[in-house]
Structures are given as structure tokens and as C-alpha cells.
Amino acid sequence: MVAPLGSNVIERQHHDLALVGAEATPWVLLARKQADQVHHDIVLAHRTGPATWALETLASENSPADKTCDEPPPQAGVTCDFDYRTYYPLALAAGQDEVRALYVAIRRQGTFVSACEQNPLPFCYWNTQVEDRSSELRVAWPGSQPDEHQVAAVDVFTDRAAARLDTAGQIHLAFYDDPTGVGLDPVVRYVMIGGQ
Fold first, then answer.
1. Is 97 helix (H, G, I), strand (E, B) or coil?
2. 8 Å CB contact between 59 and 42
3. Phi first, then psi: what are they for 18, rounded to 5°?
4. By mean pLDDT, which of 105-109, 132-136, 178-182 is the weakest?
5. What are the Cα distances from residue 153, in Å, to 158, 168, 186?
6. pTM, whole model, 2 decimals?
7. 106: closest CA among 90, 92, 95?
């Protein structure tokens, strides 16, 4: 076992594996649920011995600056502004003695407006009134802090990717891109990191 997921539901299913160095040490990139059962951490793990792994959190959701509308609205016509980020692990790229973890940070900003129904008891829920989405494809490495992670591309909207490292040290990434976030008419995109 590499690490418990912290939940019995797998919401961020993508993970990646790379073998690094002459001894082919396994490294794993994954998303793990936080104790609040709402937010996730992006975790980088590597095997240190038989059935033992070292875990490192690269990035954590739920910044103190995040604004969410988690509580149900009390009545119809109420508005709530939101501004938060979600993280998705994408891929690992490994050279002979180094590893790079790629993940995407998607920022959602906007306003919800509440609506209510009688079915058979009254209940209220949030509808999106306006939403802006932006994203950053980030590159992290063992021992790095989130503010050190390099932004390799913007406007990348995906939750999984395939990556390969070439002999010049450039990372080649292919993924389905879904800018609307609803799964309609995605496109296949390619990004090269570290080259011209």
C-alpha cells in the first residue's frame, strides 16, 4: 500500500507512476482526500523500502482565502460569491535522477443565486448565475513549496494527462481539454514543457 486515500469514494481517479534512477525507485503522484472529506491534497510518494513509502504533500486545496457556498441557502433569491481552487494530479516525468510532478490548479470565481422547490417538503439549492474559470498547469518537484511551482501553461482544463520525457529533458504532454467543464466537445491538446 502506498497511502490511504482518506475516503471510501474515489473522486479524483487519475494517478501516475514513474521509475527513477539506476535502482528504478517507484514514485507515485496521487490526490488524497483531506480529513474534512471535501478538499484534496496533491501527494508525491516514493518507495523507501519493502512496503514502506515516504509521502510529501505538494499542494493543498482549501486556502484560507477560498470563498465557497457550502451551506444550503435559506430561501430563494439569495446570492453567494465564490472563489476557490481545485487541484488534479496529471502526470510524472522522470529522468535518470530527478522527477517532476505535473498538476493542474483550476480557479472558479462567480456568483450563485438560490432557488427553492416544494418536493414534497421545501428545499433550496444554488444555481450558477455567473462563473469565470481559469487554470494553471504547474510543475513541482520533491522538496518544493507551492509558491515555487512553475506555471508551464494556462487555460488547461483537464483531470488527467499522458506525459513523456525526451532525451533533451523536455516534457511532452497530451490531454483532453474541456474548457466548459461539462464534458461537451472536448479537444485533444499537446503541450511541450522546457523547449522552444
1. coil
2. yes
3. -140, 150
4. 178-182
5. 12, 20, 18
6. 0.87
7. 90
